[in-house]
Amino acid sequence: MTAQPHSGGRASAPIRTEALEALLTEKGLVNAGALDGLINRFVNDVGPMNGAQVVARAWVDADFRERLLDDGTAAVGEFGFSGPQGEHIVVVPNDDKQHNVVVCTLCSCYPWPLLGLPPDWYKDPAYRSRIVREPRLVLSEMGLDLEDDINITVWDSSAENRYFILPQRPKGTDDLSEEQLAALVSREAMVGVAVVEVAA
How far is it, in rounded angstroms, from Cα 139 to Cα 128? Predict the structure, then answer.
């Protein structure tokens, strides 16, 4: 995917955001420390490690996995993960024959309590339009080459349902603890543009 060109000589989004933050801080409308703390919370504390904990638990606890697939919102709530963008979580599992990937074609609906802030590529118009039309090609461009016999389903997140991928547990991890398993899980795997792998 290629970056979208800027039009009309407008400043890039990061520059505009930084200027807006400086202006609001200068006028006393925003506390810079509080804002940094909020951003840090979503990037780190409320980030992908929350989702990774959920995935690891589902890999080691069959009863939890069943609850997660039956009612994602309630099962995720068992960890205390909830809040805005965390309602109506629908979990779909990947396996040997089925690969699922998530997009939001209208905007960037995303399960924040599980994955933190959405990455730039998830919000990019090219990803949002192309993953629906040519998922196998887009996944390949992002570094994930799937065998031809693996079926690919694209799930379109919205305000009604926010989809979350339960990646397939990699082989050779039977002796790993739940914490060690969680450390293997990436944000990309929980969106479906990558798989969980064990470092050689």
Answer: 12
Helices (H) and strands (E) in the chain, counts: 11, 4
Residues forming a β-bridge with 66 = none
Structure tokens at 145: 């080459």
Strands 98-103 and 89-93: unpaired
CB 192 within 8 A of CB 94: yes
Task: Give the tens place of pLDDT for each residue, 10-27.
Answer: 555 557 666 776 777 777
Per the CB < 8 A criterion, the answer to whether 164 and 190 are in contact is yes
Measure the CA–CA gap between 11 and 8, rounded to whole angstroms.
Answer: 9
| DSSP state for residue 42 in the 8-state scheme | I
d(CA 95, CA 108): 26
Active site residues: 104, 107-109
d(CA 46, CA 116): 5
**Eight-state DSSP code of residue 83:** S
Question: How many CB atoms neighbour CB 79 within 10 A?
Answer: 14
Question: What pTM was computed for the model?
Answer: 0.78
Residues 112, 46: contact at Cβ < 8 Å?
A: yes
Mean pLDDT of all residues in 186-194: 97
